[in-house]
Prior knowledge:
7 helices, globular
Amino acid sequence: MNNEQIEELFFKGFAAMDMAPAKETIDQFVFYLQEVMRWNEKTNLTGHKTEEEVVGNLFMDSLACTGVFSPDTACSILDIGTGAGFPGIPMGIVSPRQDIILLEPNLKKVAFLHHIIGSLGLKNIRVEPCRIEEFSKKAEYHEKFDWVFMKALRFDVGLAYVTPILSESGKCVFCRAEPLPPDLVPKGFSVVNELSYELPFGLGKRLLSIVGPA
């Protein structure tokens, strides 16, 4: 796809999500997508192979995550197992007031994340190259995060380590294809809410399961 075709793809995607981005935001997303596709040829960033799949399943799915918080209110966000930066980087681009940490242990993906953050000048996003098991032990992050997002990590694995790092009112958000069975939620947590939405380009329905300490 050329630049104009990619721009049109993003405009359609944003419209489907009821969002009206500035041209600068579209330009940032176009660059980001092109770099994902370029790096994916040598580094396994994502299993999605076409621009439409990446825009719908990764970019737009990430933007849906911004529906859980107010863009006008600054908050602290952790994106566990971010991979190529989803949902953290798209959220940080459209919500620059949010302080976002991307957690990713794969060093090749970490290199990609630093490249994108630096190229786009994203001052509100940084990377921690480690696993949640190690990260949750760091005292400087205890009781810090208002929102913890998990797109690729199993919810039971993630919830086993988040208690120390959640703020007093902190909650976890899981990007899912189906509702989270309450009986599978670990003891000490409960499902607070579930927000459903539909991805563009006929990619189907998704939902955000919001879980907090019981």
